[in-house]
Automatic annotation (TrEMBL):
It catalyses: an anthocyanidin + UDP-alpha-D-glucose + H(+) = an anthocyanidin 3-O-beta-D-glucoside + UDP. Pathway: Pigment biosynthesis; anthocyanin biosynthesis. SUPFAM superfamilies: UDP-Glycosyltransferase/glycogen phosphorylase. Keywords: Glycosyltransferase, Transferase. Its EC number is 2.4.1.-. Belongs to the UDP-glycosyltransferase family. One of its GO terms (molecular function) is anthocyanidin 3-O-glucosyltransferase activity. It is an enzyme of class 2 (transferase). It holds the Pfam family UDPGT. CDD domains: GT1_Gtf-like. This is Glycosyltransferase. The lineage of its organism: Eukaryota, Viridiplantae, Streptophyta, Embryophyta, Tracheophyta. InterPro entries: UDP_glucos_trans, UDP_glycos_trans_CS. It comes from Erythroxylum novogranatense.
Length: 478
């Protein structure tokens, strides 16, 4: 029991998506800096993707090698997901998600079983992504403190948490879904159905993903602690309502700082170096365009965005992922687009987003509203032009545009036109609207900075998390 008290050892299981792994990495570094031993676990398929993007040398065993050299105790393990490496998870998504729901936990169970009695210090804590449906079972089996990590905003968590209310009131899983304002979810206030996450807007709720959501949010209610990558003051009503139900701590934003800046991000693709091109542009004149690591943009949207960028005459850097279906550099882009943009823009398959948006020349972000991108935009004071594609991005857009007023809405699920895109890009990058957006985002950046200060809410919540984990560890050791 003394070992458990002195050396907390957390085993971390992010969902195998880049947008989820990134905040898990930052949390691992932060906990390790406070004396935790961390065992960070990714699937073998994700490990393969990362090593393909950046081959690991003998000297660099994994992405935490530099952290260990600095004195942090972060171990790295891989686990099978039930499918061979050659299995195409993207093209067989429903089959893969069925495995994620029914098979993956057996592989996690095997790994934890191997670590029992062999890990030193002893495992004391399980930190798993909230979208995993199995943590309470395995935490109980191995006598571990069960911490659920939600990598999206508290608002999205609240909506999933209250699936029963949405169903009873006819806004979810109903043939004739209501279109009126949702005003009955605790701490949420008024919300339009278009601002629900995409999974909650869909009519077919029998898919594997819907069953994962239902199972995971039934399981999270058994967690000892829920932590969220947000800021108390930014989502106070939703968080206070959740705290009436269980221990819920806002510990964000989890962003790279200090040591994290020297550690290569867990990228799934080779990163282009954009600094040279960005250096040639005046301060605040470049629009950064990216739709993240997972969501797909259709052909019509890519074409209209391309022409919209041309019409706007605004300088831009556009990240078009190499594995975007059919849209690898060129297939969707208008013929001759590369020649037309000349010095106006740069199109790359992938880049280090933090490095790009922190560059002085970047002054705005055309984004899918992934939560990491939203937090990073606020931190770097970049107003956003919002083009959500799926999952929590519609809910995040509501926060950005309606609640915080730090961005503009591109469209509401209607076909976008090049002229509308050009007009909104120009509004974002110059004029009265951009000035107002800039003021609001600087205020919100200040809120974030204060939350992370020594007396701020996120720092206090993080310290409370550490205290609670240690207390609950002792309770389990009795």
């Amino acid at each position: 029991m003394a070992d458990r008290q002195q050396n907390p050892h957390a085993v971390m299981f992010p969902v195998p998506l880049q947008g989820h792994i990134i905040p898990f990495v930052h949390l691992a570094l932060k906990l390790a800096s406070e004396g935790f031993t961390i065992t960070f676990v990714v699937t073998q398929a994700i490990h393969h993707k990362m090593t393909q993007a950046r081959p690991i040398t003998v000297e660099e065993e994994d992405m935490f090698t530099a952290a260990r050299k600095s004195g942090l105790d972060i171990r790295y393990k891989t686990v099978g997901d039930g499918f061979p490496l050659g299995f195409d998870r993207d093209q067989n998504l429903e089959q893969y998600l069925e495995g994620f729901l029914h098979v993956f936990s057996a592989h996690v169970d095997d790994l934890l079983g191997q670590m029992v009695g062999t890990a030193s210090p002893t495992m004391t804590c399980l930190i798993s992504d909230t979208f995993h449906p199995w943590p309470s079972t395995l935490a109980r089996k191995y006598n571990l403190v069960n911490v659920s990590f939600w990598t999206e905003p508290a608002l999205a968590f609240s909506l999933y948490y209250h699936l029963d209310l949405l169903r009873i009131n006819g806004h979810y899983d109903c043939h004739d879904k209501r279109e009126d304002t949702i005003d009955y979810v605790p701490g949420v206030g008024g919300l339009e159905p278009k601002d629900l996450t995409s999974y909650l807007q869909e009519t077919n709720t029998s898919t594997a993903m819907h069953r994962i959501v239902q199972a995971s949010f039934k399981d999270v209610k058994k967690a000892d602690i829920v932590i969220c990558n947000t800021v108390q003051e930014m989502e106070s009503k939703a968080i206070l309502a959740l705290q009436e139900r269980q221990s819920f701590y806002a510990i964000g934003p989890l962003l790279p700082s200090g040591l994290a800046k020297s550690i290569v991000s867990p990228s799934f693709w080779m990163e282009s170096d954009c600094k040279g091109w960005l250096d040639t542009n005046p301060s605040g004149t470049v629009l950064y365009v990216s739709f993240g690591s997972f969501a797909e943009c259709n052909e019509e949207a890519v074409v209209e965005i391309a022409y919209g960028l041309l019409l706007s005459k605004v300088r831009f850097i556009w990240v078009l992922r190499p594995n975007t279906e059919k849209a690898s550099l060129g297939n969707f882009l208008p013929l001759g687009f590369g020649d037309q943009i000349k010095e106006q823009g740069l199109v790359v398959p992938w880049c280090n987003q933090i490095a790009a948006i922190s560059h002085p020349s970047v002054g705005g972000f055309l984004t899918h509203c992934g939560w990491n991108s939203v937090l990073e935009s606020i931190w770097h004071c970049l107003p956003m032009l919002c083009f959500p594609l799926f999952t929590d991005q519609f809910t995040n857009r509501k926060l950005v545009v309606d609640d915080w007023r730090i961005g503009l809405n591109l469209c509401d699920r209607k076909p976008i036109t090049r002229y509308e895109i050009a007009e909104k890009i120009n509004n974002l990058m110059g004029g009265k609207i951009s000035i107002e957006l800039g003021k609001k985002i600087k205020e919100l950046k200040g809120t974030m900075e204060h939350a992370l200060s020594s007396t701020g809410s996120s720092e206090n919540n993080f310290n409370q998390l550490i205290h609670d984990v240690k207390v609950k560890t002792l309770e389990l050791g009795v």
